[in-house]
Every structure is written in structure tokens, then in C-alpha cells.
Amino acid sequence: EEESEDEEEEEQVKGKVPADSGHCSEEEDEEEEDDDDEEEEEGEGESGDEEEDEDSEMEEETSNAEVPQKKAKGPKVTTQQQEEEEEEEEELSYDTEGALRWKQDLAQKAAEAFLRRQQATPNLRKLVYGIVAVEDG
Amino acid sequence: MASQGLTYEGCNFFRQRLILATLSGKRVKIRNIRSRDDNPGLRDFEASFIRLLDKITNGSQIEINQTGTVLFYQPGLLYGGSVEHECNTQRSVGYYLEALLMLAPFMKNSLKAVLKGVTNDQNDPSVDLLKATAVPLMKKFGIDGVGVEIKVTKRGMAPGGGGEVLFTCPVRRTIRPVQISDPGKIKRIRGTAYSVRVSPQMANRIVDSARSILNKFIPDIYIYTDHMKGANSGKSPGFGLTLIAETLNGTFLAAEMVSPPQGQTPMLPEDLGKACAKQLLEEVYRGGCVDSNNQSLALLYMMLGQQDVSKIMLGPLSPYTIEFLRHIRDFFQIMFKIETQAPVEDEERKGGEKVLMTCVGSGYTNISKTTK
Prior knowledge:
- The complex is a heterodimer.
- The longest helix of chain A has 25 residues, at about 75-100.
- By secondary structure, chain A is mainly α.
- Chain A has helices at about 1-15, 20-40, 45-70, 75-100, 105-120, 125-130, 130-135.
- Chain B is built from eight helices and 18 strands.
- In chain B, helix 1 (about 15-25) runs parallel beside helix 8.
- Chain B: It is found in: Nucleus, Nucleolus.
């Protein structure tokens, strides 16, 4: 990941975009994209994602405020913002879907819960005799 | 040669180690006994315990270094016979009697021991408690008959002592395996309130306060009062209470309280009676087929039984019992199967978690017993 970031920084330097603001917004883009992927896979932690989104929006505003001061509003940045907005809309749809997704993999969840419970009950034999007892059965 | 024996460190579980060494015939070396203490080495009560072991065995070899921080013990044959022992007053007679209970059935001659010292103190199970719980337990393992007796001839309270206890036990060639898994419901509560060198009214006050709590649960309660005077009352004043709950299946659960020794903050007999009654309720909650004081005794007999499966239901294991299990593994290479049993919620029978202990006896036979 670091390498890719470095490359992007280089691109920004070539496009005469100030390193600070451009880098900042780009990093968040990446994070958001990662979050989206995770959501698609797991379908959990919607509330957390929402919070992150809010944070990123706040930071975008600050970055936007900074940009005109430095007089370097490259075309790349605007396209990115548009992309972000589109992504946010998509995210909302993911959120509503995720709320209904608790029914997925119920059997697997039950199996995991069972294993977790079994591990939580103390194995007295193991407590008394130590590891040796486990090998003996 | 030392490699054949077992080596331990520290002063903890001193009795367990010596008892199991004696039964298994393995030599044992204990190092670093209070080596960092201001007063290093064995205490007087431990030395007294070693002397008692020496009296009941034949050919034991005991070596203690100059400071008493290292002990080497090579056990001899358990001989038994008539023994008289002046127990150190730092610990009560129960400390010594517990060991004798474990060893007595495996001796050459039936044991008749007279132990003198403190019969009741706040640390160790008192003679009354062992009399009420250990003797019925031994009967289940086939150690019964008229020969088993614990009798308090003189009562001596801490710190002065001056009590006397008679303990007799027959010898057995083998121990019967047991399967006890249902303790049953509480049938009756018995108890002894004793007082020495104080007003005899103290015992009555204890009885009244203990009854005030227990009467709510069961009507069949009888608490004896035992006031000893004159030569039988020992050297120090004090009073106490032992309560025993008997179940339908013949399990005895006991609790006890003793007044603080003279010089410490005194305790009202009413408070003592109530506290003891609550302790008994706690013991009943813990439940199991063996009183928590006698868990290790029961496990020892199970382990030394014939080569057959023994099962016993216990309440939560006491720390002493847990360490005892580890020592059994060290000395006899026997491991118990330990299963937790969730408390049965139906038919109002609730209580603490129970543990089902299962083992196959080692087939230990008492080869020193003479066949007649």
C-alpha cells in the first residue's frame, strides 16, 4: 500500500497539486473504498462506518477550504469529489441492506457461538492437571 | 538415589506430601522450607507431625538439615499399635487426626492413638467435626465396625490446650470401591455446642441463636450441649458449635465455629451461633456427597481401592483438594476424571456446581496386615 501511495504522491507533484491537501483527500478515498469492500463481505458494523463517513466529510470540507488558499484546484480533485458523492449514495443502500442481513449464515453463527460457549466452560481436568490431561483425553 | 524420590519446594501441603510418601513408599525431599522467612525452617507443629509419623511407622528415615529448611523422608512400614502423642498447640489435634485417618486403615496393627493438645481451634477441622463426618464416610469405604471411634475425653481450647482425644481404627486389606452420586435431601440437623471454663449458659445461648436460623428450613433439629468442667476442661476458656446436616442417603455435611482464643476480640455466643448456622447453609449449598473438609480423604480412599471404578459426587473442589489431586498424580500416577455437573434446576433442588470424580482404584493392598 505504501508503494502505491508514494506513486500517487508523485503523480500529484507532477500535476502541480499541493502535496498536503491532495494527499489527505486521496488517503480518505482509499479508506472509504476499503470500508466498502469490507461491508460487502461481512455486512457488519454499519454504525461504525457511518461515523467514519461523517469524519471523512468533515475533513473533506477542511481540505476544500484549504485548496483555494493555495490556488491549486486541479481537475483531478473535482472528479474525485464527485466519485466520493456517488460512493456515499451506494453506501447508504448498503447500510439498509445490512440491517436485514442478520439472517445470513445462521447455522454458521450458531456453530461459532457453540464453540465459544464450550471454550468458556472451564475444563476442570485441565485446570487441575495442566496440559498433560488434554493429551490423554 | 535421590533421583528415585520426589522433590518439592516450600512448606505448603507438608502433610499431603508426607502422607502420600508413606503410602506409596516413595522417598521425598522438601527443600526451601520457609528459607526466606525471618524464622526459617520447620515450625514446631510440623516437627511434632514428623514425630507422630515416626511413632506410627517402623524404619522411617528422616533427615533435617541444620536450619530446618530441607527435609528428607524415606518412609518405613506403617506399624500402628498403641500410640500416645503430645500434639503441638500451634495447631489443633484435627491437623494430626486428619493424617491418621488417611493412614490408619493401611497399618499392620490396628491403631489406638491418644492425641493430646488443642481439640478445637479456629484453623483446623475440630475433632467433633471429624467425628461427625469422617467416620460415616469411612464406613462407606468398608472401614467400619466397633473399632472405628473418635472420642473427646478432655476438651482443650486454644491456646492452652490440655485436651485429649482417643482414636481407634481397624486395619483393612483392601478398600471397597464406592459409587455415590446422589446425596439426597437433608433429613435432619444435629449439632454440639460446647463450652469450657465459661458459664454453661453460653452453650444454651449458642443453641438458641443457631436454631433461630435453621428452624426456618427443617423441623428436625437437635443440638446437644456439652459443658466440660474440672480436669476435663483443658487449660483455656472458650466455646464453639459444630453443626451436622444429615441427608437421606447418609451424607454428612458439617460446619463449625469456635470462639476466638483468649486475648483476642471476644465474640458473642449469639453471633457465633448465627454465623455457624449460615456456614452450614453454605455447606449445604455446596453440597455433594462428601463434606468439603473430607474431600481429599474420600479421594484417597477411592484411589487406593480395589481395581474397580469408583465414582463420587463432590461440591466445588477446595484448593487443598486440587493440590491433593496433583500430588496423587505425582505419587501414584493416577488421574481422576473430573466432570462438572450443572445444578439440577427442577424440583427445587438448586445449589452450587457439582463435580463428579471418577477413578479406577490402584488395587492397593495392605501387605503388612497379618492374615488370621
